[in-house]
Amino acid sequence: MSEHIEHTHGPGCACGCGHDLSQEEPTRCISCGAPVGGTGHERSMGRIGFAVVGGFLIVNYYLLHWLFPELGFAASLSAFAGAVILALPIVVTAVKDLCEGRVYMNELVALAILAAFTSAEFSTAGLIAFFLLITIIIESHTASGAQRSIEELIRLAPHTARKLIDGKDIEVDVEELAVGDLINVRPGENFPVDGVVVRGQSAVNQASITGESLPVDKMEEDEVYAGTQNLSGSLDVRITKLGGDTTLGKVKDMILSAEKSKTPIVRLIDKYAGFYTPTILMLAIITWWLSNGDMSRVITLLVIACPCAVVLATPTATVAAVAAAARLGILIKNVSHLEFASKIRAFVFDKTGTLTEGELAVAKLGPVEGVEPAQLLLVAASVEAHSNHPTALAIQKLAKEVGIQIQNVTDFKETPGTGVEALADGKPTQVGRAIWLKRFNIELPEIQPQETHGMSVVYVARNGKLLGWIGFRDKIREEAEEAIRRLKELGIKRCAMVTGDRESVGEGVAAKLRIDEFKGDCLPEGKVEYIETLKKETLVAFVGDGVNDAPALAAGDLSIAMGAIGSDIAINSASIALMTNDLRRIPMLISLSRKSNSIIHQNVAFGLLFVLCGIILSVFGWMGPIAAAILHSFSTLIIIFNSARLLRAGEEATSQEASSWRRALQAEAVKS
Fold first, then answer.
1. Does the annotation mark 270 as catalytic?
2. H or E element: which one contains 558?
3. Mean pLDDT to the nearest integer, 434-459
4. Which domain holds residue 481?
5. Is the same domain home to 388 and 519?
6. With contact defined as beta carbons under 8 Å apart, do 297 and 530 qualify?
7. In-domain check, residue 667
8. Tell me: the pLDDT tens digits for 377-420?
9. Per the residue annotation, which of 97, 181, 350, 549 is the catalytic one?
10. Closest Cα partner for 533 from 550, 552, 516?
């Protein structure tokens, strides 16, 4: 039965050949061309066919035996035929394993069935094979979580699109589209690609990627993503990403990567799996010898010792947990990260873009004497026009609103998290934080604290002289306080914040959110140093926006990137990526991690106890082969149903979000 567990951690091809899905045709395997859900689905249906036909013949044996005792030969023939049909898939798999030099659990089951055949107990062999074949079918269906997740994701993106050519929409295959093409997406349709809205306005359901239960309003220049659903209006979209480059493609890759990775418990089981089968075979020989050749005990031992419950204990819980996390918009690269999340006792948050909205607005211009505010804004906007930092975007926005024409800029250089420099109109110009500008020997004036209270400040200098400063305000995320409170309720000992802003700004945010400690005026290397110091005391998770926080994300024991939808940097820079900016997903992640760990330990403990008790009962002859086969299937079902409880994790929280949204809409309707 091990081949099915291998497929749990294997690539996306349904045929099990061990190759990835084709980039050009993601529903087919690169090597063999087998369709997803094709060969694998046919194999599963084939086994069901064997189980149905063989099971009917075994039932026929018992009916003939009970109702027509005189037809003993016909009954025995029916039992023999049924046993052969049921045993065939199991024995073939075991032989394949042996031919490839592998000894797994399949051999125990095959030996038990062959032993029953040699004892001429065809009905017993048939029943054993029937229940174990049913178990294999359940295993193969349960363990193919990665494949099914990918199939569902592939179905989210339509295969055709309406391409706009000379004002007319023509239906074409998505494969024929190119970056820069215009397409039209009508209400109720899914977006086939990533793009930017160029015409129209609509509400879009992004739950398939972000896990958000609330639709998001989209208008001109807003981004839309493949696999999300257009709800209300017709949108014309310019394509920016296709195929595997889309956010949906990245999500697919991360789910596959997570589900084929292994937790420490699975690696431990794999390490000793090679010794298990020889040990059981040795125990079976000893049992046969001590019981004076009682084959019934040997058959029972071989059946009950097959540790399907133990082997399935972790994969089933892992598949369920990764699926639940993806539904919540939490993407996990490696399941070991999910297990590790339950051990975190300290969280360090970046401020801008994480605890705050990250959409800064210019609050005040502070030019020095002899400099006009318009001149200060002109110089700053000219240099910042080449940056995507939140402060740069705020300056660009204000300059655009007041109609300032920026100057020509050359030799642009950005120091992440600290400032930018360039030649603006041929003159060396710097825009950045105070501590950074001091490197250029620029004298900075003393600013009264009340003048910039609650503001983030950057300074502007040209030709070695200060032109003035610009103050920004940022809005704290509405859910930030609730997220911090939930983390503390979950037993997180320390919640800290690091920021490149001044101490006074950090102090204000920390006080509002009841954060235990904070550090301001923090350069990127300062954030890393802070995390390294904290790691000496406890396990630390760092939460950032994934754009300017790459060193800090790398420094944490666990790294979580916010707002990863549409951001390759965020997806690639962290252990775990949150597709939405909702901080409440972080306590959900911790709860899911702890629950999944608890269920894994329950499953492993139950599986080991079942095998141990079953071996004892079989050795002493207190249980028969048929009872062992039934209990074997029953134990597998218990493990699967126990793991399935994880699928509903976070359901209550997301339903509450949806209810709040509906109440808000109703209240707005009443007012209007």
1. no
2. strand 558-561
3. 80
4. 330-357+476-579
5. no
6. no
7. yes
8. 999 999 998 888 888 888 998 998 888 888 888 889 988 778 89
9. 350
10. 552
